Amino acid sequence: xxxxxxxxxxxxxxxxxxxxxxxxxxxxxxxxxxxxxxxxxxxxxxxxxxxxxxxxxxxxxxxxxxxxxxxxxxxxxxxxxxxxxxxxxxxxxxxxxxxxxxxxxxxxxxxxxxxxxxxxxxxxxxxxxxxxxxxxxxxxxxxxxxxxxxxxxxxxxxxxxxxxxxxxxxxxxxxxxxxxxxxxxxxxxxxxxxxxxxxxxxxxxxxxxxxxxxxxxxxxxxxxxxxxxxxxxxxxxxxxxxxxxxxxxxxxxxxxx
Length: 257
Ligand code: 1GP
Hints:
Blueprint: H1 4-16, E1 19-24, H2 33-45, E2 50-53, H3 63-72, E3 77-79, E4 93-99, H4 105-122, E5 125-133, H5 138-143, H6 154-167, E6 171-175, H7 187-196, E7 201-204, H8 210-219, E8 223-226, H9 228-237, H10 240-254
Parallel strand pairs: 1-2, 1-8, 2-3, 3-4, 4-5, 5-6, 6-7, 7-8
Helix pairs in contact: 2-3, 2-9, 6-7, 7-8, 8-10
The site of SN-glycerol-1-phosphate has 15 residues, from strand 8 and helix 9.
């Protein structure tokens, strides 16, 4: 029986061609819970299809903020854990991720093993996701000891994506790292992976403008993630520009259905 959130994601990809996910990082060192909750309300209002909650450098427990965000919105909240500290039973689901191109087995299966019993007992829906780091990789690559894919080597990404598919992962995440320069993962890499792999491609890291996200969708991504853009802009204009960005994703997605 597929979980509710996974069914929601697959049906929406089928119906709409492309989805927008908002990444919120409730790091208590840099942001108040009320602020993250307000961001969550605004991204939902702007039409975002889901909220991912996580970050590479989370200090302290995220339970309270995950509950507050999940209570405030109707769109799915999905954990995007940077480590075993990123788990909370208050989300709707969790990306159960493996950083396949890490050089450190802790990030491939060690953290997952440490967290598995708790996740299983929580009853959280889990969505197995291969997490692949592309240059520059930023903080996530540094923390995750990743051997990042060079941006001009799409075939290396494809090798890993195909391995992920054959291992049973349901999604493959091409990640350039939060705050990456250059408008996100290169089109050639997204397009090579989405052309040959049969699992949906989710991508993020540096997709800041309408042009960036449309490029990602046109290259073949099924889900484009924005974090930094949201953190910097949605409170200021109440999500007005985000609504336009999401509309452009939907327009580009519609051409694929
Ligand atoms: C990071 O891919 C996400 O894990 C989002 O990246 O913050 O650059 O949007 P940005």
